[in-house]
Amino acid sequence: MILVFGHSGQVATELRRVGGVTALGRDAFDLRDPHSAARAIDAHDPLAVINAAAWTAVDAAETAESDALVLNAEAPGALGRACAARDIPLVHVSTDYVFDGTGTTPWHEDDAPAPLGAYGRTKLAGEHAVRAAGGPHVILRTSWVFSAHGSNFVRTMLRLSDTRDRVSVVADQVGGPTPAADVAGALLHMAQALRDGHRGGTYHLAGAPHVSWAGFAREIFDAAGRDTLIDEVTTARYPTPAPRPLNSRLDCAAIMRDFKIPVPDWRAGLRTVLKELGH
Ligand SMILES: NC(=O)C1=CN([C@@H]2O[C@H](COP(=O)(O)OP(=O)(O)OC[C@H]3O[C@@H](n4cnc5c(N)ncnc54)[C@H](OP(=O)(O)O)[C@@H]3O)[C@@H](O)[C@H]2O)C=CC1
Ligand SMILES: Cc1cn([C@H]2C[C@H](O)[C@@H](COP(=O)(O)OP(=O)(O)O[C@H]3O[C@@H](C)C(=O)[C@@H](O)[C@H]3O)O2)c(=O)[nH]c1=O
């Protein structure tokens, strides 16, 4: 059995759908309690652990960085040490927001991270903590995750289009929307590979083709049959508490090479999610 930290989040929900996992919600453990992870692992004696729990509120992290740090860095560190002490493989999820977004070429796993905001800083600290724990692990960086549940851009756009004729969306941030179901599939595959002796490491998985948030919104409205207009704006014209990277493209060659995990086409994933939402 694979033990999942997280239950109702986007990725945790898709992991539960695949099956073969025990997923723990915050009623069963508290990321803020450093002993909670070890207790849960000992209670379940899993073959591998997937950490799908995190602070994901990007703007709110700007004014609560120490709280986000506990969830995104200290907790994964404790989880990593608990797994390492028991020689249990850990698969942990990280983000494109560890990069500063300069340039236009996709980020390689070895490129130097330089987060722009608090969320990215805390997620990068989580990566360091998982590596420092010294156990068998994979860190999977993904981006722009969406699904039929939880908080994500697809659901936000559909909600806005319920009440508005037009929305302003940034057109100069470019990346890869990624269906949570594909993230879940990759996490499970990688957990099994670690069990089978794969040496692990840091990998990227993001949907293709690259698109801007405005382009993504266009596809969402087209696929959902909405005629909501999109005013394309620059990041400078759409101020948010947290700065976001302009270039969120992730190079996904390594995960294909080492795990045979293909890059998902997010447009197919979008159609599946919209169908699930009744569109
Ligand atoms: N969303 C995105 O666009 C992206 C996400 N990621 C990363 O992917 C991973 C999964 O993200 P996603 O599924 O979208 O996240 P969600 O925001 O959908 O879910 C967050 C999860 O964290 C859990 N959680 C939050 N606080 C606590 C706490 N105090 N104690 C225990 N559990 C807690 C929630 O628990 P509960 O189940 O009880 O509600 C929930 O399962 C995260 O590491 C995130 O950083 C990476 C790139 C993009
Ligand atoms: C709602 C909205 C957002 N935007 C912009 C703001 C931002 O630049 C971009 C995305 O906004 P959101 O707040 O929906 O998404 P955001 O929370 O930035 O999404 C991020 O979440 C974390 C967890 C990650 O790890 C990232 O990969 C990424 O998915 O779109 C608009 O231009 N118009 C709008 O109406």
UniProtKB/TrEMBL annotation:
Family matches, as CDD domains: dTDP_HR_like_SDR_e (cd05254)
Keyword Signal tagged: no
EC number: 1.1.1.133
PANTHER family: DTDP-4-DEHYDRORHAMNOSE REDUCTASE, METHIONINE ADENOSYLTRANSFERASE 2 SUBUNIT BETA
SUPFAM superfamilies: NAD(P)-binding Rossmann-fold domains
Gene3D superfamilies hit by this protein: NAD(P)-binding Rossmann-like Domain (3.40.50.720), UDP-galactose 4-epimerase, domain 1 (3.90.25.10)
Entry's Gene Ontology BP terms: dTDP-rhamnose biosynthetic process
Top enzyme category: oxidoreductase
Any one GO molecular function term: dTDP-4-dehydrorhamnose reductase activity
Free-text comment on the cofactor: Binds 1 Mg(2+) ion per monomer.
Reaction(s) this enzyme catalyzes, per UniProt: dTDP-beta-L-rhamnose + NADP(+) = dTDP-4-dehydro-beta-L-rhamnose + NADPH + H(+)
Domain of life: Bacteria
Swiss-Prot/TrEMBL keywords: NADP, Oxidoreductase
Cofactor: Mg(2+)
Keyword Transmembrane helix recorded: no
InterPro entries reported in the protein's UniProt record: dTDP_dehydrorham_reduct (IPR005913), NAD(P)-bd_dom_sf (IPR036291), RmlD-like-bd (IPR029903)
Pfam families in alphabetical order: RmlD_sub_bind
Annotated function: Catalyzes the reduction of dTDP-6-deoxy-L-lyxo-4-hexulose to yield dTDP-L-rhamnose.
Source organism of the structure: Citreimonas salinaria
RmlD-like substrate binding domain segment(s): 2-277
Pathway(s) this gene product operates in, as recorded in its UniProt entry: Carbohydrate biosynthesis; dTDP-L-rhamnose biosynthesis
Identification of the protein by name: dTDP-4-dehydrorhamnose reductase
Family under the similarity heading: Belongs to the dTDP-4-dehydrorhamnose reductase family.
